Amino acid sequence: MNIIINPPKFAWPSLLQRPAFDTVSLQKTVREILNEVKENGDHAIIELTQQYDKVLLKDFEFDEVELMNAEADTPSALKKAIIQAAENIEKFHSSQITLPEIIETIPGVQCWRKSVGIEKVGIYIPGGSAPLFSTVLMLGIPAKLAGCKQIVLCSPPNVEGKLHPAIIYAAKLVGVTHIYKIGGVQAIAAMAYGTRTVPKVNKIFGPGNRYVTCAKQLVQEDGIAIDMPAGPSEVCVLADDSAHAYFVAADLLSQAEHGADSQVLLVSTSEVFVNKVNLELEKQLEALSRKDIAAKALQNSKAIIVEDIKDAIDIINEYAPEHLILACNDPMSVGNKIINAGSIFLGNYSPESAGDYASGTNHTLPTNGSAKAYSGISVDSFVKKITFQKLSKQGLLNIANTVELMAEAEGLDAHKNAITIRVNHLKK
Amino acid sequence: MNIIINPPKFAWPSLLQRPAFDTVSLQKTVREILNEVKENGDHAIIELTQQYDKVLLKDFEFDEVELMNAEADTPSALKKAIIQAAENIEKFHSSQITLPEIIETIPGVQCWRKSVGIEKVGIYIPGGSAPLFSTVLMLGIPAKLAGCKQIVLCSPPNVEGKLHPAIIYAAKLVGVTHIYKIGGVQAIAAMAYGTRTVPKVNKIFGPGNRYVTCAKQLVQEDGIAIDMPAGPSEVCVLADDSAHAYFVAADLLSQAEHGADSQVLLVSTSEVFVNKVNLELEKQLEALSRKDIAAKALQNSKAIIVEDIKDAIDIINEYAPEHLILACNDPMSVGNKIINAGSIFLGNYSPESAGDYASGTNHTLPTNGSAKAYSGISVDSFVKKITFQKLSKQGLLNIANTVELMAEAEGLDAHKNAITIRVNHLKK
Description:
Two copies of one chain form a homodimer. Helices cover 46% and strands 16% of the residues of chain A. Chain A is an alpha/beta fold.
């Protein structure tokens, strides 16, 4: 890690800058693939899968045998773990369901909001080095709780034309309604525009590489909603002398192993502590299977030593990390001063990996500083809140004058008239 | 209105299609203006204002005298109406504030969400034919309730270099912190990138023409959040024989007067009723100041006559209107079957214009079918919900095995190790 001691405030923005996550340069290629699927549907998908995933599929649906095999091929200890995680995630996300509350703003004028599940949602689960069945839980469970009727999942097949059995097992467990072996841009296209086989969805969720992210941005221009902008995963740890250097090193490595572009930041009030962490990093790194990836991510990572906890909080709010671990004295009071972060882990026994898998919170979170304006995924992400209003005759009369005056001042006569015509009818 | 009787289901999508709201063709022009402001800041804004708004400003800030004059120049009856509307809007939106609820998913594992206001938000209020001070209330009030610290408002000056006094009055009333005389793409650029005068914001809200909409889409690619995709305003009225034809005609006209591209749709189970509405439309149109605009919008509008209320509901869910007026028997039970709409108005005395101004609900709503995936503006739109978690030592031990198994199966050793290292420490 690069150690920076007491950087002046004006240097923070450049110090905290993430590497540019450019998708604009990919737009031409991605748009071509999107158009290909839009025009040639299932046929294009088969071809693109052969080209990019190196496997020629007859089709990309599952038959009953494959689904049954997936259950059998998932070790029972892992199934038990997935069920436990799913229960915790469901318990936390259930608390996010809101029921309508009728507000009478003035007598006779009742207003409320009702949450309605988005009818059709798409979930993308990347392939690559890690089979992210945990993300199936994190997206599928809130979708189900929200009341989404069609939950479509796409994930790229391996060279044998298969998905990891735990992905299929998790999908069945949480109530995904459609599973397809489709990856990359062609998966986003299939869910955005629909094909003979794949239903068109209203909103697309899930992580992916730069091509997938670019595809999500482009289909958004065509009116398909997406979960949030995506960038490489990040953790920031705030640690003082009350923290354990080997815990902190383990947490930093758990982020670093995601990818060479993972963002790892340590903010500390203690130079001695940072040096201890650096030694621990070297020691723990050796034992990791993804050592090379983690080492690369660490090369670009920073440890910032600050004067006091106030500066630490200010730096963190400027950075707006996806994950923030508060391994410091009184983490609760520090946490209450954080205004920009995706998810906050309090104290020495709340590692990020608890939340990544099983504590119950969601692990799909805003990266790349977007925690300044975006929340992580929740049941909210899978519903629309429709407003309702019901005016009694008296209610209408009670606000008539207000509406008439405002409509007139905005020069909108017909708006005014919709009120006046009713008032006149009632006064007849 | 064009009357269509019992269209077959396969014809619905083409029948309900909105005119394409193309912004892609504008991207080059808009990107140039964005870059100009990004590079030359305040200076570029002065020049662009002279070019597009035909007024040369010394600067685009307000002095105290202008702010005081705005208050004096707003008639007191209108001020009273604005205050009444603001109170109702505040009452309804206050109910959207959520407090953290701690959920213990398993013993020792506590999770919760905390709403935190987005620190800096921008509000765009268009100029043009109507001074939309009502939109200032609809965006400023939830921003203030959410706890946003900087609320920046931009609106184009008229040829005398002024804003409508009611816009300034409403902005001061609801607690807007910065007001600038800047319009169009240059306003979006100023708020997205910041200039010497205008603070950079995290999220931009508000309606606008195609150029403004395109600018919002483009700055989104640069990481600035926006409220929602925008298109021309829409109303759908579902009416049966229990409705009043002159009420329905007035409601359709109140949408039609917004612009020639406004979308007006009548769905009815009764041909007789539709004919009555058509006669009323002609009669009421004559009296309107914006007659020409409304007449043009009506030329493109449709009345669809359906077999029964079930078909009506299905057609509406396919269309996903921004505003839906249910002028029919038992509107509550019909409303509960609607899954795609922005805001629903129940019964004969709940006209859209009540919600446009003063009932308390928000009037910034999803258009162009985006009600299938988006909600209207609420306090939710101005907050991020940060998740927190706190594990006790026992809590960590309770989920340790689950996390370890899942991390291992995903091939993420370092994630597993962040747990194991703590478990070993506790078992020492």
